[in-house]
Amino acid sequence: MCTLEKHGDVFVLTLTGSSDVDEHRFGPPAIDSILSAIAKAKAKATPGSALITTSHGKFFSNGLDLAWAQAAGSRAGARERLLYMVESFRPVVAAMMDLPMPTVAAVNGHAAAAGFTLALSHDYVIMRRDKGVLYMSEVDIGATLPDYFTALFRAKVGSATARRDVLLRAKKIKGEEALSMGLVEAAYDSEEQVAEASMRLAKQLAGRTWAGEVYAEIRKSLYPDLCGVLGLDIRAVVSNSKL
User: Fold this and answer.
1) What is the pLDDT of residue 183?
2) What is the pLDDT of residue 243?
C-alpha cells in the first residue's frame, strides 16, 4: 500500500507496510493503491510540481507478490495470478511515463524485479550507497520478462553491457556500482541523506515551473519505443504561458 503527501510543490508517494521488514510487494491491492496515488497527484498537479517515490523500512520494493500467486494452489492458478499482476502493473509504468511533472525515486533499500522497474520509471533515481541493491531476479527464478520491462531497460539503460549484467546475469548492484553503470543519478551513505538529496532535487526541478503537459510529452518523445509498448500516444503541445 502507499500514502501520498504534499510538501510545498512536491508530492511524496511512500510505499508503506506493516513493519520495518515489509518487502512492499506489488499485489493487486498495492498496485491499485499506487495507481490511485499517481492519479491524485496528476489531478492536483500545477506548473512547478514534482513527485518523489520512497518507502518505509529496508526495502524499496521486492517486486510482485509471488506469495499471492502461489496461494492459488496450483501451477496453472499461480501462473494466471502472476500474469494478472504483470498486466496490472503495466499501467503503473505508463502512468509514471505520462505524469505531468518531474519524478524522483528515492531508493532507500532493496529494489528488485518490479521494484527496480518502478524506480527506473522515474526521471531520476537516487539510492543508498551503504545498504540496498538493484536486482532483476527473473533469470534466477525462471520467469521471462514482460515486454514493457524489457522496453524500459532498453530505453533507460544506455550501455549494452549494463543491460546484459542486469538482465542476463541477474547482478545485485550496490549504490556505487549503480552510479558508475549510469543506473542512478547519485548514491548516498544513509537513508536520511537519500531523503534530503531527493527532496532537494525535486524542489530544484519544481522551481523551474515547467508546464506539466509539455514536460510529459517531451519525456514520452525521448522513449518512443517504450511508449509504443505501453500504448501511450505522443502529442505536440504548445504552452502559451511563456510565449
Assistant:
1) 96
2) 53
- In Å, what is the CA distance from 191 to each residue of 24, 108, 204? 17, 6, 20
- Amino acid making up residue 122: H
pTM of the full structure: 0.95
Residue 169 in grid coordinates: 546475469
Nearest to 127 by CA among 193, 217, 63: 193
Q: How far apart are CA 171 and CA 141, in angstroms?
A: 13
Q: Which cell numbers hold the place of 13?
A: 508517494
Query: Residue 196 corresponds to which cell in the numbers above?
Result: 534530503
Backbone angles phi, psi at 232, to 5 degrees: -95, 130
Distance (Å, rounded) from C-alpha 136 to C-alpha 149? Answer: 10
Fold of 2-230: 2-enoyl-CoA Hydratase; Chain A, domain 1 (3.90.226)
